[in-house]
Amino acid sequence: MKTAQDIILAPVITEKSMSGIADKKYTFKVAKDANKIEIAEAVAELFKVKVAKVNTISVRGKMKRMGRYSGYTASWKKAIVTLKADSKPIEFFDGLI
Prior knowledge:
Layout: H1 4-7, E1 8-11, H2 15-19, E2 25-30, H3 36-47, E3 51-59, E4 63-66, E5 69-72, E6 76-83, H4 91-94
Antiparallel strand pairs: 1-2, 2-6, 3-6, 4-5
């Protein structure tokens, strides 16, 4: 059994993800083998909020070059978590706005 810290790896801090905070949508980098149910339970446990729905996206690694050598960055999984209307916001993201 994975813990909540093993499922939620890091917040995604981009311009687009910050614009979703007004609609109570938060973006996280999650474990590649985690499903939507595990992600919802982990967010609810870590931040003490009520989760309405979870959307997941598998992000492909990009091709990068360093001179004549080329390779790919690591692929990862992103989750967009929408909170219920009566749920409190996540305090971590409040300081970033």
